[in-house]
Amino acid sequence: MRKSSPIRIEVLRRLTQICVFAVCLMLAATGRGRAQSNQNQASPPAQSSVLLDRAVAVVNGHLILASDLDDEIRLSVLDPNQGGQGPLTPQRALEQLISRSLIEQQIRQEDAQTIEPSQAEVDARLAQIREQLPECVRQNCASDSGWKTFLSSHELAPERVEAYLRYRLEILRFIEQRFRQGIQISPQQIDSYYHDVLLPQYTPGDTIPPLDQVAPRIQEILLQRQVNVLFSSWLDNLRQEGEVEVLDPALAPAPGTNQIRQSSARGGP
Description:
This protein is mainly alpha-helical. It has helices spanning 6-42, 66-75, 90-108, 119-132, 134-139, 144-153, 158-179, 187-198, 211-241, and strands at 55-59, 62-65, 244-246.
């Protein structure tokens, strides 16, 4: 048997030591990698968390989401009067959404084609808002730049505003067809609303629209108020006959209060 030389044995020994050292480094790196991976899985970074939408109410199987509630509150800037009740609260916003959902379900059971507003009607309503809404008057919403600034300040998209107005006009027409017969709005009522409710919303220096220009819109508001009285019991019946459940306890109406009293079709000039 051939003997290995001392030099060859020394070289093999050194190579063995180097290989063992390299293997140890690889194992140590693998251990650190696994530990880091386990740590990441156990404690995911805050940036990776996703906030999911949640349901706040169910109306005859139709979900009302928290995002719908936020959307309703943002869109309430288009209705600054709010019946003298101040800024729209989440509780009242949910009442409006429930009312609207009940009415929408009734509309869909009938011939919606006879109720759907035309694009010209939606454009006319939008033009009224841009020219007559007190905050829009101050921000010159009649101009494209002023309107863009107004929408941006309230986190609204033009498409969402148009869809909202179309929806409100549709509901208003449905309500009018059912309950408007026999309701008359006098010139005295329009004049009183103009001086007592509308004018105080403007600040000194604002360009105030004349009465004859806003009279049709005031008549619409006063009509809606009277219609509310007539159809509130109808809405109560819809709720009693249907299934309405508020899932968020913080949004539930106070005991003893009427839960549905708003048409969601109301609006200010």
